[in-house]
Amino acid sequence: xxxxxxxxxxxxxxxxxxxxxxxxxxxxxxxxxxxxxxxxxxxxxxxxxxxx
Length: 52
Hints:
52 residues, mainly alpha, 3 helices, 0% strand, flat
């Protein structure tokens, strides 16, 4: 289990990322500039307050 998977599970209780979420998180954590435009519902399963 990767660090990102463990963080997702312990923080939000989800077992896996939706498509592209892992890549987006990994790029942001690697210090890369990220612009992610996902379809409606693409990240809405994570509580919005946790993303701020």
